[in-house]
Amino acid sequence: MRDLKQLVKAYDVRGVVPDQWDESLARAFGAAFVQVVGASAVVVGHDMRPSSPSLSRAFAEGAAAHGADVVEIGLCSTDQLYYASGSLDLPGAMFTASHNPAQYNGIKLCRAGASPVGQDTGLTAIRELVESWTAPDDTVTVPAPAPDVKPGTLTARDTLRGYADHLLGLVDLTTIRPLKVVVDAGNGMGGHTVPTVLAGLPLDIDELYFELDGTFPNHEANPLDPANLVDLQARVREVGADIGLAFDGDADRCFVIDENGDPVSPSAITALVAAREITRAQANGESNPVIIHNLITSWTVPEVVRELGATPLRTRVGHSFIKQEMAETDAVFGGEHSAHYYFRDFWRADTGMLAALHVLAALGHQDRTLSALTAAYDRYAASGEINSTVADQAGRTEAVRTAYAHLPGVTTDTLDGLTVAGDDWWFNLRPSNTEPLLRLNVEAKDPAKMAELRDAVLTLVRT
């Protein structure tokens, strides 16, 4: 029997098709989603994976059979689905497995206004309902709706132009200087959204891998892996571009390459965009804007925020924590080390495209190169995330805590894993929720100190 606990993750549904799930389960998820969120209408979209159209349609049929009118927006990026959910004020379902290999697919669910549905906000209840409908032989039988439930309708709707117009209404790019931009869509949904969003602007776009192909023939659509940035870096250098942009498979994340072909850290992008959003909020009369950052973004981020007269708020890693804090504090912007960027003006949802527009505007409204522009936001040496396979996550973490906690001037906290900090350095050690891994991030003012800390902690972790 299929184990739905392996399929339904903390924040989404994700697994191999058809081994772990198929259209029958997708149809059941549609019915369960409608029942759990109490939806009379939903919006459904999908990415370019071979299995996405049929899974998306099955979900829509399941939702409609249980009384929901379904707006099908077809091919879209995840943030385009969030736009549809926000602008139409409807719960939504996005069929994508983001950067996972081609055989995977999944569902990202949200309530009306792009409010996330996670393990503690409905996803567990949805899973349990589908489990109750699944027989030991994996046959799924969804009970018929109550006699008074009228089947919903299926309606197609194009939201791409509306999505583009909404984003372009938030960032003025009409007066920037001409820029040469290389964009690597990774055969993902950036190839669908970029041509519409960036059309007509003073940008010379050099397209890499814009063909929608969910088999990812050129490289994985995961820019977090440096190997997948190599082609973009080479192209930026080859054509003398001002900037390179790399989107992941569902185009909700965007990575930035400078004119030298070097990656710009997501923390530097977080600080740059935060500065712009703070300035705009203050111009609109907000005296103390709040910026959210997770605890493994660079110390540069809270430093920049404070320097600009705003309030930084540190939170756990993960979109549910970021979005919850944004809702509670009315924060204008939030950023993560993984290149997820969240905007109050985008229903507190994450959108790589809007972050990219901010970077293009910042670059195009002055004459410096991107590397010169971002230098002010790159104040520390960072290790990047390093994974170690361990048998005893808690034991290895405690060994690290014991080694550092007694040192003079050192502080520790356990907001998310273990964070240890000195005067001009810090590191965080977090357990994976799904694998026997510990994830280490180290940052220090001095590169040599960073390397020394990194190696010392890894020795303790891997002993």
Can you walk me through this structure?
It comes from Kitasatospora kazusensis. Its cofactor is Mg(2+). Belongs to the phosphohexose mutase family. Keywords: Isomerase, Magnesium, Metal-binding, Phosphoprotein. The structure is a single chain. The mean pLDDT is 96. The radius of gyration is 22 Å and the shape is globular. Strands 1, 2, 3, 4, 5, 6 and 7 form a 7-stranded mixed β-sheet that branches. It has 463 residues and is α/β, with parallel strands linked by helices. It is built from 15 helices and 22 strands. Helix content is 36%, strand content 22%. A hairpin with a 4-residue loop joins strand 19 and strand 20 (418-421). It folds into 4 domains: 4-158, Alpha-D-Glucose-1,6-Bisphosphate, Chain A, domain 3; 162-263, 3-Layer(aba) Sandwich (Alpha-D-Glucose-1,6-Bisphosphate, Chain A, domain 3), CATH 3.40.120; 266-377, Alpha-D-Glucose-1,6-Bisphosphate, Chain A, domain 3; 381-462, TATA-Binding Protein (2-Layer Sandwich).
How would the blueprint of this fold be written?
Blueprint: H1 4-7, E1 13-16, H2 23-37, E2 41-46, H3 52-65, E3 69-75, H4 78-88, E4 92-95, E5 104-111, E6 115-116, H5 119-132, E7 154-156, H6 160-168, E8 179-184, H7 190-197, E9 203-208, H8 230-239, E10 243-247, E11 254-257, E12 263-264, H9 266-283, E13 290-294, H10 300-307, E14 311-315, H11 319-329, E15 333-335, E16 341-343, H12 352-364, H13 370-374, E17 381-382, E18 386-389, H14 393-404, E19 411-413, E20 418-421, E21 425-431, E22 437-444, H15 447-462
Parallel strand pairs: 2-3, 2-4, 3-7, 8-9, 8-10, 13-14, 13-15
Antiparallel strand pairs: 1-5, 4-5, 5-6, 10-11, 11-12, 15-16, 17-22, 18-22, 19-20, 20-21, 21-22
Helix pairs in contact: 2-3, 2-5, 9-10, 9-12, 14-15
